[in-house]
Amino acid sequence: MKRSALSRAAETITLLVVCFVALFPILWMFLTAFKSPRDAYDISLNFQPTLQNFVTIFSNPWNLGHALLNSTIVAGATVLISIPAAALAAYSFSRFRMRARKSLFFAVISTQFVPAVVIVLPFFLMFRTLGLLDTRIALVVVNVAIVTPFVIWMIKGFIDAIPLDSEEAAMMDGASRLRVIRDIVLPMAAPGIITSAIFSFILTWNEFLFALILTRRHATTLPVALTNFRTERGDLWELMSAAGVLITVPIFLLALVIQKHFTRGMTAGAVK
């Protein structure tokens, strides 16, 4: 009995320590975002909150609004392109018994094993030749190439879990393959598709390496824009924290709005 109580106490203490270590940097970032430049270097929690940092990052010379627009467009376009394409590809891998299906599926998934730093130079040379450096199109193409294999794998697990009986019955009644996909498969796989869309948006929203190498000024995204707060007088922690809040909050809000689908997607057949 005593050992069990000690074990539970140890687990509770360990959990609290882990939560503190994980959440403290985020909490400190939020606090610093509302501090004045002088208070940003003070560890005291007794300070006068201010919203001036958020006003400053959207003003000259930072103009973070342009980077926010770029991140939103790139992440949104990536989701709109990758999810339909991945859903159709996942259905094909799940339902059609094509030759070398397993090898082809493994080839698609194996692209996730290649480090980003290995392929960033070929992408840079290709876009330079095409005249697409520092454009949103280049970032969308790169991010679609990165997230689509992962989304295919994730959605395929959901489609594998859908019984074939309903599809076969609909096709016997005269429904076409596309109608079966639209009216039966996609609604039943909706939790997985929504979860995949969330992950695609998050991965694209937070992507840094390709945006850093492929952009200069016009197509700079929010993660890259954070590097601008390193100036001659040092790191502008209060402005960097305000920008960090700007990056973090949409992800939290997105997860809260579709929490039901997100939870179902994480616990259902996506990793079958």
- Global morphology: globular
| Poorly predicted segments | none
What is the spatial order of strands in the main beta sheet? 1-2
Mean pLDDT: 86
**Percent of residues in helical segments?**
over 70%
CATH class: Mainly Alpha
CATH architecture term: Orthogonal Bundle
Q: Give me the Rg, rounded.
A: 23 Å
Distance between the termini: 39 Å
Number of strands: 2
The description of the largest β-sheet is: 2 strands, antiparallel
Report the CATH topology name: MetI-like fold
**CATH H-level homologous superfamily name:** MetI-like
In DSSP terms (H or I, runs of 4 or more residues), the helix count works out at 13
Approximate strand percentage: under 5%
Question: Can you offer a commentary on this structure?
Answer:
The model has no long low-confidence stretch (mean pLDDT 86). The protein has helices at 2-33, 52-57, 64-95, 101-110, 116-130, 136-160, 164-172, 177-188, 190-206, 209-214, 222-225, 237-257, 259-267; strands spanning 230-231, 234-235. It has a single domain, classed as Orthogonal Bundle (MetI-like fold), CATH 1.10.3720. It starts with a helix and ends in a 5-residue tail after the last helix. The protein has a two-stranded antiparallel sheet. The radius of gyration is 23 Å and the shape is globular. With 272 residues, it is mainly α. The chain is built from 13 helices and 2 strands. Strand 1 and strand 2 form a beta hairpin.
